[in-house]
Design goal:
It catalyses: Hydrolysis of terminal non-reducing alpha-L-arabinofuranoside residues in alpha-L-arabinosides. Belongs to the glycosyl hydrolase 51 family. The chain has 658 residues and is α/β, with parallel strands linked by helices. The strands form six sheets. Strands 4, 5, 6, 7, 8, 9, 10, 11, 12 and 13 form a ten-stranded antiparallel β-sheet that branches. The protein has an eight-stranded parallel barrel with strand order 3-14-17-18-19-20-21-22, surrounded by five helices. A hairpin with a 4-residue loop joins strand 24 and strand 25. Helix 5 crosses helix 6. It starts with a helix and ends with a strand.
Length: 658
């Protein structure tokens, strides 16, 4: 009994000590002293086709290797037959007749009925099938005589049919035709498959075998996964950077991203191996290719849909310097520069211009109003500076208002960074792209990184950053510790909005069954998508951006690490609100007395959004909002607020200026 009593006393003592030993601070906000304008593009998103982010991800196509153009033409496909007949299935390469999509499948039938001969496609780590959903099947075909029927089935892992239909191929002759049919699924299946059974007699050529769900974003045929796009739209990002990332450079220059191959009819977009296919031996993905169903037109359209400025990145004549270090001689650089000039015309040109006409032909006669582009990705050295100068001269001469984003290499410090930062500032670069993949400690220690940067000249684009927690794998890397350290760092970016014009977390998407790189902002499987704690932090900053930075100080100094406290403040002129962000990165609760100067009258209460959890906490498909903001109200009296911040917490406070 005495032992039990002693234990209870000990627990109460610990709890009481924790509750009443809070650290107390007075933070002063001066709402009448704007220090910098916050660009509308301040918080954006970075897209790269890594981790099956495009094919097998946001691009809703369910059939893998739909046009038989992978290195192994039948990869993803399985042949089903009652008996083997030599030559009944042949992959034909038309060569020079169609260099962009040369292969197709020739099927020879001998009075076949359903069950004699068929194909199964495994999809991208299976196919996510939803009960009651409409599925749209299409195919390109050519046959001498109209004798073919296709029996289309969706099946589960036990081969049970959960949706089926029949498609008759009715056109005959030497030309290619498109046939399509829609049907509904009767069950939800996480890893389904597509069966095609042949019925008929004679020869039929098949290409572009495709299956899309009916619930694409904005119900566009052949479009994007709506749940993934919705997560982006919910962030209200200021920009979307695309298409990468390292895929812009390519392993070598033959593997570089070429935007002109990604526009026009889908069947004419030339497939290419994804450089992340073999980049990491421990995460090999031999079936990772780029069909470019998500191409530059779709990227621009996506940006327009979600209200973000498009930020395309183009190859500068240099491949990845870690891989091949291949580069184009200066005398041969003109085609690369022309690609950049043509891209501006594609995005902004009149419908009568060469590339404006291509855009209009794809269904968008109005311009996309491109305002900026990046030249190179993580390139470095004098060779990059030399090529950048050529791009800069040509683009500025023809399009002086286009802002150029320029690479500062792979790291945020060191000789390579120092050289590029100096040279780019001499060139008066519009934006210098800085990348930081570092441990949480780095982000906490660098909240003052931009306090002493030049306030004029080149501005900073935090183009890629993520906090990397050691001893974690896959989606478990997206811990609250990582997100909290990013929040602390982002208060420093916001405080220095006159220096930092844009910033974006990277990478954006990861398929839980096919990732190459972690951590990532959003994780998906065939049926679900969820935002990580990092996503929730990015979303809070983006939705609470404000228009002008105002000072928030502790003992007349920026709040950037004192007692593990970080803070920024801004005015939202449109909403007439004061926004205060506070990170408590310590293991102690803290009381923050907010003194609001420079305001005439405030509402009686404000809105408080708070994130707090254990440092190892993560979100998951089963608990997608395990770590997410909780909304409450907070009292305001005599222009003062008492903000109690829990250990390891991030708080966003909005106060109406009346």
């Amino acid at each position: 009994m005495k032992q039990r009593f002693a234990l209870v006393v000990l627990i109460l003592t610990v709890f009481t000590t924790f509750s009443f030993s809070q650290v107390t601070h007075t933070l002063v906000v001066n709402a009448a002293q704007p220090k910098a304008t916050i660009d509308k593009t301040m918080w954006g998103i970075f897209f790269e086709d890594i981790n099956f982010g495009a094919d097998g991800g946001i691009y809703a196509e369910m059939v893998k290797n739909r046009s038989f153009e992978f290195f192994k033409p039948m990869m993803g496909w399985t042949v089903n037959r009652k008996k083997f007949v030599e030559g009944e299935l042949l992959v034909i390469n038309s060569g020079e007749q169609n260099t962009r999509n040369p292969r197709f499948l020739r099927v020879t039938l001998n009075h076949a009925v359903k069950g004699d001969l068929g194909l199964t496609n495994e999809g991208f780590r299976g196919m996510g099938i939803k009960k009651g959903m409409r599925y749209d099947f299409s195919i390109l075909y050519r046959q001498p005589e109209a004798h073919t029927k296709l029996h289309i089935e969706l099946t589960d892992s036990t081969k049970r049919v959960v949706g089926d239909t029949v498609l008759s191929l009715t056109e005959a002759g030497d030309s290619w035709h498109k046939a399509a049919v829609s049907f509904h699924a009767s069950e939800t299946v996480a890893k389904g498959r597509l069966n095609i059974w042949f019925e008929g007699n004679g020869t039929v050529d098949l290409d572009m075998i495709s299956l899309f769900p009916g619930d694409t974003w904005k119900n566009r045929p052949g479009g994007l996964r709506a749940d993934m796009v919705q997560l982006l739209a919910d962030m209200k990002p200021g920009f979307i950077r695309f298409p990468g990332g390292c895929i812009v450079e390519g392993f070598d220059l033959t593997n570089r991203y070429r935007w002109k191959n990604t526009v026009g009819p889908i069947e004419e977009r030339q497939l290419m191996i994804n450089r992340w296919n073999i980049e990491f031996p421990y995460r090999n993905a031999p079936d990772y290719f780029q069909t470019f169903g998500l191409g530059f037109f779709e990227y621009f359209q996506l940006a327009e849909d979600i209200g973000a400025e498009p930020l395309p990145i183009l190859n500068c004549g240099m491949a990845c310097q870690f891989n091949s270090a291949e580069l184009v001689p200066m005398k041969d650089l003109d085609p690369f520069i022309q690609d950049a000039l043509d891209l501006v015309e594609f995005a902004n040109g009149d419908v009568n211009s060469k590339w404006g006409k291509v855009r209009a032909g794809m269904g968008h006669p109005a311009p996309f109003n491109l305002k900026m582009m990046g030249i190179g990705n993580e390139n470095w050295g004098p060779q990059y500076v030399e090529r950048l100068q050529a791009f800069q001269a040509a683009i500025k001469a023809k399009y002086p208002n286009i802002k150029l984003i320029c690479s500062s290499g792979t790291d945020p410090n060191g000789d390579r960074f120092d050289y590029l930062n100096g040279e780019l500032r001499k060139l008066n670069a519009d934006f210098i792209d800085e990348h930081y993949y570092r441990k949480p400690e780095w982000f906490l220690q660098n909240a003052r990184r931009y306090d002493n940067y030049p306030r004029t000249g080149s501005r900073v684009f935090g183009g890629e950053y993520a906090s990397h927690v050691d001893k974690t794998v896959g989606s478990n890397r997206n811990t609250w510790l990582a997100a909290l350290s990013e929040a602390a760092f982002m208060t420093g970016l916001e405080r220095n909005a006159d220096v930092v014009g844009m910033a974006s977390y990277a990478p954006l998407f990861a398929n839980v069954d096919g990732w190459q790189w972690a951590p990532d902002l959003i994780w998906v499987n065939n049926l679900q998508a969820y935002g990580t704690p990092d996503y929730q932090v990015q979303k809070l900053f983006s939705l609470n951006k404000g228009s002008q930075v105002v000072p928030i100080t502790l003992n007349n100094d920026a709040v950037a690490g004192q007692d593990s406290l970080y803070a920024s403040a801004c005015i939202d002129a449109a909403a007439h609100e004061l926004i205060i962000k506070v990170v408590n990165a310590s293991d102690k609760a803290q009381t923050n007395n907010l003194q609001l100067d420079g305001v005439k009258k405030l509402a009686a209460q404000g809105k408080l959004l708070t994130m707090q959890s254990d440092l190892t906490a993560v979100n998951s498909f089963d608990s997608p909002t395990n770590v997410a903001p909780v909304e409450s109200t907070i009292a305001i009296k005599n222009k003062k607020i008492t903000l109690n911040t829990a250990p390891y917490s991030f708080s966003v406070l909005r106060v109406k200026l009346e």
